[in-house]
Structure formats: structure tokens, C-alpha cells
Write a structure and sequence with these properties.
Elements lengths: L3 E4 L3 E4 L4 E5 L10 H9 L7 E7 L7 E7 L5 E5 L27
Antiparallel strand pairs: 1-2, 3-4, 4-5, 5-6
The structure holds zinc ion (ZN).
């Protein structure tokens, strides 16, 4: 499986240049219930279609950015720096830098 991603800084590159950071999620309220916290930590929507995701340009400028990708076809509809894609709201949590080492890498 291979496809192309457009880094907001560097332009179009093979997906092997990037690390996958997972779905964009949002922090719960400042005093979350146990259920809200568990949902935030352990559950993902796992959409079969277009979802907003974090990507890290591991072999390039090392910036985290977001992409709208169709998970069925791997067609990337848009990429942008955090907060710049249409429909962005709230304060998305940037994935931890520890994930940048290759965990979750798509090949
Ligand atoms: Zn880049």
C-alpha cells in the first residue's frame, strides 16, 4: 500500500516519508467523568471513509500536520497545518513526539 501525501512545507512525498499519528481527537472538559476519560484514552471512531488524521513528516521538515484521508481508498483530500483545515474547532491534541520514531508507520 502506497500513496502520496502533501506536506504543508515540503510538498508531495511518498507516504513512507511520514509517520502516522492517528485520528484527530479532542481533549475532554477540564473535569472529565471517568467515562469521558476512558472514551478519550481508549476509543477511536475508526471511520470507513474520510477522517481527519495526524501525520508527521519524519524524513523531512519534522512538522506535525493534519490530513483528511479516505480510509477506504487512501485518497488524501487535503492537508494543512493544525487548525487550518475547514471545520477545525476546539483544541486538538498533537500526538506525542514519542510516536514520531516510527510507531504506527504506514508502509
Ligand atoms: Zn515537510
Amino acid at each position: 500500500m502506497s500513496f502520496l501525501l502533501t506536506c504543508p512545507n515540503c510538498g508531495v512525498r511518498e507516504v513512507t516519508d511520514f509517520g502516522y499519528g492517528g485520528e484527530v481527537t479532542f481533549r475532554p472538559s477540564s473535569r472529565p467523568t471517568q467515562r469521558e476519560l476512558n472514551t478519550y484514552n481508549y476509543f477511536r471512531r475508526n471511520v470507513a471513509g474520510v477522517q481527519r488524521e495526524w501525520w508527521f513528516h519524519r524524513s523531512g521538515c519534522r512538522v506535525w500536520f493534519q490530513a483528511d484521508r479516505n480510509t477506504r481508498t487512501n485518497v488524501v483530500l487535503a492537508t494543512a497545518l493544525p487548525g487550518e483545515l475547514p471545520g477545525a474547532s476546539g483544541d486538538p491534541q498533537t500526538p506525542e513526539a514519542s510516536k514520531a520514531g516510527g510507531e504506527g508507520m504506514v508502509t
